[in-house]
Amino acid sequence: MPISAEKPPFPAFYDDLDLTLEEIFKRLSDGVRNRRSAFHTPALATVTPQGAPDVRTMVLRGVETSPLTLRFHTDIRSGKVDQVSQNPNGFCEIYDSNCKIQLRLTCRMTVLGDGETAERAWSETRAMSRACYQIETGPGTEIPAPGAAVYAPERLDEGRANFAVLMAEVMKMEWLYLAARGHARARFERGAGDWTGCWLAP
Ligand SMILES: Cc1cc2nc3c(=O)[nH]c(=O)nc-3n(C[C@H](O)[C@H](O)[C@H](O)COP(=O)(O)O)c2cc1C
């Protein structure tokens, strides 16, 4: 059985680096709004202070194109924020089984607790999401049972103080498109402004 049973016409991006790059930007932008896309929930890896990898699923909240930067929202008390504050190396991975595309992104991470980006992100956050940040017991704290974390809206205002934005600036990208006639693998590296791409043996 071939991995992909795709039939002609093949996607135009298959053997075209410029179109592949376009496809990456398109898929990432679509992932922000499209909850059914795998690009909506990338796996984001960071490095612990001990030098070990740590990875978790995150909702992709925004994409800036110049320079290419992914935006995530999180609790400032979470382990990943501490890790990124000590080591900015991050890595994002997405596999969409519907379109047979894997994307691997080498990133430089930044935490924004305040400032314009964080304020705008918070202002766009819905009440339901805000409630997560009103939990007094910080993420990762041991509790006796599920549901035992203390929810204290009256003490924690709107939860704004616990809200942070994680920015992942993309430095390098690796694309893999699975196809029966031969997988297409490409690498894109960021130069002074533009991306330079090349094909790789899969
Ligand atoms: C589908 C899905 C989406 C998630 N989205 C987020 C998110 O946007 N932000 C976040 O902080 N955690 C999110 N989580 C929880 C994280 O995966 C993780 O468990 C949590 O943030 C603690 O991670 P840390 O201890 O490495 O900081 C999500 C989990 C799942 C399963």
Task: Set out the fold topology.
Blueprint: H1 17-33, E1 43-47, E2 53-57, E3 62-65, E4 68-75, H2 79-86, E5 89-96, E6 101-112, H3 116-123, H4 127-132, E7 163-177, E8 184-190, E9 195-200
Antiparallel strand pairs: 1-2, 1-5, 3-4, 4-7, 5-6, 6-7, 7-8, 8-9
The chain binds flavin mononucleotide.
Residues 41, 54, 56-59, 72-75, 78-80, 139-140 line the site of flavin mononucleotide.
Describe it.
The chain has 202 residues and is an alpha+beta fold. It has a single domain, classed as Roll (Pnp Oxidase, Chain A), CATH 2.30.110. It is 19% helix and 35% strand. The chain is built from four helices and nine strands, in the order αββββαββααβββ. Strands 1, 2, 3, 4, 5, 6, 7, 8 and 9 form a nine-stranded antiparallel beta sheet that branches. The two termini are 18 Å apart. The relative contact order is 0.19. Residues 1-5 have low confidence and may be disordered. The site of flavin mononucleotide has 15 residues, from strand 2, strand 4 and helix 2.
Q: How much is the radius of gyration in Å? A: 19 Å
The CATH superfamily label reads Electron Transport, Fmn-binding Protein, Chain A
- The chain-level structural class is alpha+beta
CATH topology: Pnp Oxidase, Chain A
Strand content: 25-35%
Characteristic terms for this protein:
alpha+beta; binds flavin mononucleotide; disordered N terminus; elongated; nine-stranded antiparallel β-sheet; Pnp Oxidase, Chain A; single chain; 9 strands; 202 residues; 35% strand
